[in-house]
Write a structure and sequence with these properties.
The chain is α/β, with parallel strands linked by helices and 277 residues long. It is built from six helices and 13 strands.
Length: 277
């Protein structure tokens, strides 16, 4: 049976993100937390493979104790197990330190439940927005990585081959790779399912497995948390909101509205040209 790991992160709702001007860090207190948008597409693809071929789906996340809610949501969707890696020593980790801990977690998952065939991550997170953790995990585990995947075309569990479409800036790349492999998911990959009522009840009752630094006896503490994070944010800022003048066309006739809009745009264009002249 296939074993799939889906890596997720609980992030602040991007619609309510604020920056602390003194520390240059995200203000998380009082901001609703959600499962990272792209990670949910990775979870969904793992569950689709499970539905088609049969698989064990283990969801892992690194974060504070409140991240249990994110794992419960994935369990409600149909994942089999959830692992929360949580310890104050992990706090303040950048992408380098995070990928180190996540890679160790995947290795421990393998030791606990057997070899991992596919790892899914979102293409990036809504808070960090770097897209570096997934590739970093693949490099540390020394496995193939397929980034920016928008379609899974074919999976052969006998030959252990997968064919995907990668969305690149200049087109779409069709790639075949051998398992094990790490995939970073785009939103175009699928539509995450709604949890069934039995799934919701299971998610509510589920208690995730929690691993701390004590569960990783060989961990290098110089590579985790702030100590293991060479990234320095020297400055951040929030763009000032701009006042935009808005006009409404007072008509229900689409043809008349189009004529009014064309006239107004022509007038505005003429005014702008006269100012530039």
């Amino acid at each position: 049976m296939l074993h799939i790991v889906a890596c997720i992160k609980q992030v602040p709702d991007s619609r309510e993100i604020r920056i602390d001007p003194k520390t240059n860090t995200l203000v998380r207190q009082g901001v609703p937390a959600i499962v990272n948008y792209f990670d949910l597409h990775g979870v969904e693809e793992a569950l689709r493979i499970k539905d088609q071929f049969g698989a064990r789906v283990t969801v892992v996340t690194m974060g504070p104790p409140t991240a249990e809610k994110a794992l419960s949501q994935c369990i409600a969707m149909g994942a089999d197990e959830g692992v929360l890696v949580s310890d104050r020593a992990f706090a303040g980790a950048d992408t380098l330190a995070t990928s180190y801990v996540v890679a160790l977690t995947v290795q421990k998952v393998e030791d606990t439940w057997g070899p991992v065939d596919i790892i899914f991550c979102g293409k990036q997170t809504l808070d960090g927005d770097t897209g570096q953790v997934g590739p970093g995990v693949a490099c540390r585990l020394d496995i193939e990585q397929l980034t920016y995947v928008e379609k899974t075309e074919h999976l052969d569990i006998n030959t252990r081959e997968i064919v995907v479409h990668r969305h690149l800036e200049d087109g779409v790349e069709r790639v075949k790779a051998k398992l094990p492999v790490l995939i970073t998911a785009l939103a175009e990959l699928n539509q995450p399912r709604r949890a069934s009522l039995p799934g919701v009840l299971r998610g509510i009752r589920y208690k995730p497995i929690v691993w701390t630094t004590n569960d990783f006896p060989d961990i290098d503490r110089s590579k985790i948390g702030l100590k293991g994070s060479p990234t320095i944010v020297s400055k951040t800022w929030v763009p000032e909101p701009k006042q935009v003048d808005t006009e409404f066309l007072d008509t229900s006739d689409s043809k008349a509205a189009a004529n009014q809009l064309a006239d107004r745009l022509y007038t505005l264009g003429s005014l702008q040209n006269s100012v530039l002249a």
